[in-house]
Design a protein that fits this description.
Shape: globular
CATH class: Mainly Alpha
Radius of gyration: 20 Å
Number of strands: 0
Number of helices: 17
Largest sheet: none
Number of domains: 1
Helix content: over 70%
Order of helices and strands: HHHHHHHHHHHHHHHHH
Structural class: mainly alpha
CATH topology: Growth Hormone, Chain: A
Length: 411
């Protein structure tokens, strides 16, 4: 059976009683706060502060690249000190305090500075959190654990836009009020993290000592297959621009400003529904076929956004796009856990996030430039092309590597 919901070791119920449940609840609250604000940022930047699509690309590219650079250091540090929860607390705390300052932004660069700081917080917490999650579950349940965590994350991404839509119905056009109220779920995020998550020493041997001379960017200790996986992932990422452009495309095709938060919430509902099955399927059938299928689906969805002409088509494409995340988010991370030595998982996740972020700045910037120069259909068609090529190359990149089951799941 794919789904196991009983109370035995490794069951969904058992996983939710431990760190998986605590980290899932933390992500739910944090994403409630984040997604109250994020779907409104394109409207705020372009409609209120007067920025253009190219500046939106710069903001999102810098934000995500910053997060990934910091993730590299956060993962390495968590391996060195052997304590991950402290870094997770700091990361969520920084984001929770800086995000409400969007309410005071008066110029486009203010938004850039706030997004930059918010992503620093994300960078500090992400790799240690992922490593702590892996260390908290049996090896054969890694995909399921990530699926549960991502499902809760997306549940917050459904709740956040719904709250934003409700606030805007009561106070039409008051985007700054929505931004200020993100402080409430942000504070609850940090409180839950203190109460429900416990520290677990890294599995698979002692963490590298503080005096280790291996640099944080070295890939040699992670095995020969891992860099090949990252190189293809980077290629895919070059065509994976910020989802903020999807919201801008929706607005161009006639989706109203009041409906944008609802569209964003429906999108995350689709992601939430598909994440747990995607993680369980990765545990059952291995991550590779799930990732390849997801990337091919991404190419199809982006081709759809290139050709779309009505709001109804936008709603349908957003729903299908959620399936792409379900097929790839948990399996991509499960593959990291399988390929990397268990005592270096913090570093592995840091390098993984770094590779994704390395492509984020040029991807979003080039997408914005293509949009402004040649129009939205050309930009989306280019993204589809990158995804198609990456999907074809990934099985070749992993061919002949060590067995993931014996390399990454050592006790």
């Amino acid at each position: 059976m794919i789904q196991e919901t009983g109370g035995g070791p490794g069951s969904v119920r058992s996983l939710l009683r431990g760190n998986v449940g605590g980290l899932a609840g933390t992500s739910l609250l944090n994403d409630t706060a984040s997604e109250m604000a994020y779907p409104l940022l394109p409207l705020f930047l372009v409609g209120v502060l007067g920025a253009g699509p190219a500046f939106l690309g710069i903001v999102e590219g810098i934000a995500e690249s910053t997060a990934s650079l910091v993730k590299l250091g956060g993962g390495f540090l968590s391996d060195r000190v052997g304590r991950r929860k402290t870094l997770v607390v700091w990361g969520y705390g920084i984001a929770s305090l800086i995000r409400p300052l969007l309410a005071a932004a008066a110029l486009p660069w203010h938004v850039l500075a706030i997004r930059f700081t918010d992503r620093v917080g994300k960078g500090i917490r992400s790799a240690p959190r992922d490593a702590l999650l892996v260390d908290s579950v049996p090896p054969e349940r890694t995909g399921t654990a990530f699926g549960l965590h991502r499902a809760a994350d997306h549940a917050g991404s459904v709740l956040g836009p719904l709250l934003a839509a409700g606030i805007l119905l009561l106070a039409p056009g008051r985007l700054r009020v929505v931004f200020a109220l993100t402080l409430i779920p942000g504070i609850l995020t940090v409180l839950l993290l203190f109460k429900a998550v416990r520290e677990i020493p890294p599995k698979g041997g002692d963490a590298p000592t503080v005096g280790s001379s291996t640099p944080p960017t070295s890939l040699r200790a992670l095995g020969p297959t891992f860099p090949r996986y990252l190189s293809v992932l980077l290629l895919f990422t070059l065509g994976n621009a910020s989802d903020a452009f999807l919201l801008l495309r929706a607005q161009d095709l006639g989706v109203s400003a009041a409906a944008i938060p609802l569209l964003w919430g429906a999108f995350h509902l689709s992601k939430m529904v598909w994440n747990v099955p995607g993680g369980m399927l990765a545990d059952r059938f291995r991550p590779l076929p799930m990732i390849v299928g997801g990337w091919l689906l991404y190419a199809g969805v982006y081709a759809g956004f290139a050709a779309a002409g009505t709001p109804l088509q936008v709603w349908v494409l957003f729903g299908i796009y959620g399936l792409f995340y379900g097929l790839t988010e948990s399996p991509e991370k499960a593959l990291v856990a399988e390929l990397a030595p268990s005592q270096l998982r913090g570093r592995a996740f840091g390098v993984f996030h770094f590779a994704v972020g390395l492509g984020a700045l040029p991807a979003s910037f080039l997408f914005g430039v293509l949009w402004q120069w040649k129009g939205a259909p050309t930009a989306f068609a280019a993204g589809a092309g990158f995804a198609l090529v990456a999907a074809l190359l990934l099985p070749l990149a992993l061919r002949g590597g060590p067995s993931p089951l014996t390399h990454g799941h050592a006790a």
